[in-house]
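Aim 2 progress update. The chain analyzed this quarter is reproduced below.
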Amino acid sequence: MPGIIHDIDADPAQRDSLSVELGEEQAHLLYQTIRNDSTGKDRLGIWYSHGEIGQETWTYRRAVGDEAALPVLTVMEHEDMDVLVSIWREGPLQDSELVTYVTDSNFKTIDDLETRISARGLAGIGTVESERGIQVIFDRVGPNGPQVEYGLIDIEQGWIGLSDSLTRGQFNSMDRSEDSLETMIVVTTSNGWQIRTLIDDGASERGGSIADQLRSSLGLDQESFEILLIGVALAVLILGMVTLVGLSAQGFRWIGRKRSIDAGSNVIMEDDVVDLVEESDLEVGVDLVEIVDSDEAGSGENGRISRMARRARRNAENSHDEIAEGFLVKPSEAGDVTMMPVPEMANSGFQISCPNCQSRVITEPGVSSAKCPICDTKIDF
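Predicted structure tokens:
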């Protein structure tokens, strides 16, 4: 890199790509070059350098990895300083290790955050930033062949967690969506290329929405979760419509029954009618009222004759009651009861019944025949 870092000695066919990150005030760089210090043997190593972006030559350089490859650098701002997370492979492929350092801009370890784990056959490393920290994806050869593994580095909490197996295959590349907050991983397997989605179910613990918490608890990606929400919304909508239709039908039936009841029992209120009872009006007792059926009322002349006969019978009974009331009992002063005589009534003749209308007729003595005053039938004695 002319003008910035000099004396880079490495075969381009053997070295890996360098890793560059921009901090708050400086740019940071991890790269490979030949080193022969300590042992005098030439080998590829990892070097770290930093400097200002407008500076022509960076004077700070430091060897950090021996027999190292696949450098990956991530810079985060924490407590008003640049925090570097450096990851690379170290050692031969048969006995390679995954090396992780969390340092400041002078490459001094922060809170002893460094680790080495065995990663035999390590061929790919990738990192992305998430809500919980830095996600690390790498591969290695396991008991069943190549496998992709997952790790997480939390700078705020001060811990490094690596080596959680995800799937079989070799890691190729990765990226993270800011909209769905999902990490997409491209994996090479014996069946071809595969794209896997990594859902971090712990992201909701850092202030995620209720929907994100529910999605994480169900273990669904954003697209599957949206399909599930649409299905639930449609089910609720259909259930609400069925309930509404049922209630409406019951309401219409109730209104119909109410109208039929009202139609069969109409009441007409006459506000202008006032009944006046005067002294000259006749008082009719309950025993004098008789209910006449509609069939009898509509029978014409026969109905009229029957009503007249019944009135005649009632008049005769009333006359007998008046005669019986003539005998009054009056107590004397001495306590004896005396009978008060009733004036004698003139002989009223004979009482006969009409064979046609059953009305009773009283005649004078000496009469041999008479005409019924009710039905005009001739009666022979």
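The chain has a mean pLDDT of 76. The helical segments are 210-218, 222-264, 294-297, 301-324. These observations will guide the mutagenesis experiments scheduled for the next reporting period.
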